[in-house]
Amino acid sequence: MVIAVELDPRMVLELQRRFQGTTPYSTRLKISSPLTFKLLFHQPAFRCAVIMFQKEFAMRLVAHPGDKLYCRLSVNNQLYARVSHLLKVGKSNFRPPPKVDSSVVQIEPRKPRPQLNPKEWDGFIRMCFIRKNKTLGSIFRLKNALSLLEKNYKTLQALGCSQSTSIENIDIGMDISKLGNSNEDQSMEMDGGSDDEMELENGDDEGDAESEVSEFKDKVLGVLKKGQFEEKRASKLTQQEFLYLLSLFNKAGIHFS
């Protein structure tokens, strides 16, 4: 809570006119996720941050596999930091009270920072969470998903990148946001309380993709079968399982950045 004292009566009237009726979160600015990740990637790394967020956003940060609120935000944030819930801050602690409760979380960056390509990881997690409650086998059969991956694969092959070649400094412009609602998902912002599943454009579904059998599709599904991920769902996978599956794709020459 912030208490400000204005000595000039004329300014008091102006402040009342401008801000009467406003509450915390009333502007619903999409800043929580960008702020969190800006902190996580800040150098030099901080030791610990204690931050108050809208309750649902905070609960997504600390959600575990299988939890209703477990999402891309949970997976990405927990890769780079240990996050713990400290306390709930009810509406009644504010004047005037907001429409939602708040929560305070503690964020501690992992040291050392995970050694992986952030763009690769983000692209991979975005694809896994296209429809988080669908099986990965269903997701990676989707025509749009396969098309993006195959285009990426062919581009890397044309650049002469072998399976063992690092792509840390290669940016070929793979845009997984095209698979869904980029306005909501680009920043992984959950302040609006909506789910972060990405709906596919043009009505593509599993049935559409099934009719297009290709060598590349078999390659992708072969990776899932090898790791026994075909019937698993992103909403249930642990951090280690995501990392293992990404490593299997990379060994097969399939990348997501």
Give a description of the structure.
With 257 residues, the protein is mostly helical. It has two domains: 24-109, Vaccinia Virus protein VP39 (Rossmann fold, 3-Layer(aba) Sandwich); 118-251, Orthogonal Bundle (Helicase, Ruva Protein, domain 3). The chain is built from eleven helices and three strands. The chain has helices at 9-19, 32-40, 55-62, 72-80, 118-128, 136-139, 143-158, 182-185, 206-210, 215-226, 239-251, and strands at residues 49-54, 81-89, 102-109. Strands 1-3-2 form a three-stranded antiparallel sheet. It is elongated. The chain starts with 8 loop residues before the first helix and ends in a 6-residue tail after the last helix.
Which features does this protein show?
Rossmann fold; 2 domains; three-stranded antiparallel sheet; single chain; Helicase, Ruva Protein, domain 3; mainly alpha; 257 residues
